[in-house]
Amino acid sequence: MSMSICDLDLVAGVCHVHLNHAGDSPMPKEVVRAVVDHTELEAKVGGYRAAEIAAGRLEKVYLSLSRLIGASDPGPQDPRDEIALVESSTVAWTRAFYSMVETKEKELLRMSFPPQKELVILVSEVEYGANVVAAVRFARDHSTINARIKWKVLRIPSSVACGRKTGLVDLPTFKSMLDGEFPLVEESSTTTYLDPKSIAIVCLTHIPTNSGVVNPAREIGEMISDYNKRHTTQAGKLPLLYLLDACQSVGQMDLDVKELRCHGLCATGRKYLRGPRGTGFLFVRYEIASVLEPSHIDHAAAPVKQVITNENSLVGLGGKQEYQRGARRFEFWESNVANRLGLGLAADRALSIGMVTIERQCKQRGRFLIEQLGAIDGVEIHHVHSSNCGIVTFAVAGVDAIEVKRRLMKGFLIGDKLHCFHVSTCPGTSTPLDGVDRDILRASCSYFNTDLELTHFCDSLKLIADESRD
To answer: In CATH, what class is 6-19+354-469?
Structure first.
C-alpha cells in the first residue's frame, strides 16, 4: 500500500525523529495548552475581553524573556521596558536596524559637517540573507536620497583554518577596523583605510542558519564597548551600535546581554525556544531605545496627543512626538495574545531546565553528530572545524540535498519500526556571503534528542551515501 508522509502519523510502529530545531522545534504540551486555552477564551468572550483577563500573565512574558537573556537584574530600570514582543526575529531585526541607521542619519543631518559624509554598516560573513538584503538596500536608497551622506555595507572577514574560511569573525581584523588600520582598495587602486568614526552599526549573526558556527559575540561586544569608551559621544547621541541576531542561539545558548554588551538583540519563538510560530522578541537597551525613533509606528507606539488641520486640509500632529517607554515603542497595537502567552511559557520551561544545561546538551549532541557524520564516506560537513552547537550542516556527494531530505523523511526500517527523519535544507542564498553555492542539508539537535536517534539517523544517511557510489 502506498502511503504519504502525512499518513505515517496514523500508522503504528512509526518513529519520527525531529532534527530541525533550527527551523521549528515542537512545542511542549503546556505551551500548546496555553495557546488553545486563550483561543477558546477569545471564542467565548471576544479577543479584547480575553486580553484584559490575561493582562497580568501577558506582562509576565516580558519578565520571562528578560530573564532568559540576562536583562533582568534588580535595578532602577524595569526590564520590561527593554523587551518588545513581535511576530518574528526578522521583524525584530528590521525594526531595530532601520530605526538605528535612520536615527544615526538624522543625527548627522542636524550637525555641521563637510559636504559629504560616509557611513558604514558592518556585517558578518555568515549574516542572514534577510539582514544583508535590508542593509544593502538601505545603503543604496539612502545614498541616493541624501546626497550629503554616502552609505556602504562592508563585510567583516572571517578567520581561516586549514586553508578554509571558518565563518567566525576574525577578531584581529575586526580590531583593525576599529583602530583605523583596515585597508580599503579604491577603484583607482589606491589604498585607503577605513575610518572607524564612519562605522554606524555592527550587525552580527551569532549562529548562522547554514552551519554550527558560534561567532564570538561577547568578544566583539567588548571591543565595541572599549571603542565607545575611548570615543565618548555627546549626551543623548548614539554610540557605535551593535545589533546581534540571536535567532538560532536563544533557547540553545546561555545568553547574558550584559556580557554580550549588545545594544539590540533579536530572536524568534519557534526555533530552539520551542514557542509558537509567529512569535519573536526584540531587546533594546533602555538608554538606546529612548533615543531611537522607530522607522514605523502606529498610535500604540506613538500615542496621538493633538491633531492639527487647516482650511487647506493639511493634517499635522501638535506638540513633540512622544513614544512609548523603551523598547515598547517597537510594538504595534494588534497582536496574537494566545501565541504571546505560549512564548512566555516556552521561556519559563527553558529557564526551569536551565540554559547552561540546555547549551551543554545541545553542544554534546552536535559534537556526537559531527563524529558520526565524519565517518561516512561521501559526507562533507560545512565549517566542520568551527561548528560548536547543536546545528550541523553537510552535503552528500552525488545526491541533491532536497532528494536526501525526501528520502530521510520517507523513512528507513530499523528493527520493527519505520524511522522518519525530519531535517531541512539551506539554500546558498540564505547566507549569501558565506561562499556556499549550493543547497546543503541541516540536522539540528536539541537537548531532548538522544544518541540512539542520532545513530539511527547516521546509519540511514550512510545507506543513501553508499547507494550514490554504487
So the answer is: alpha beta
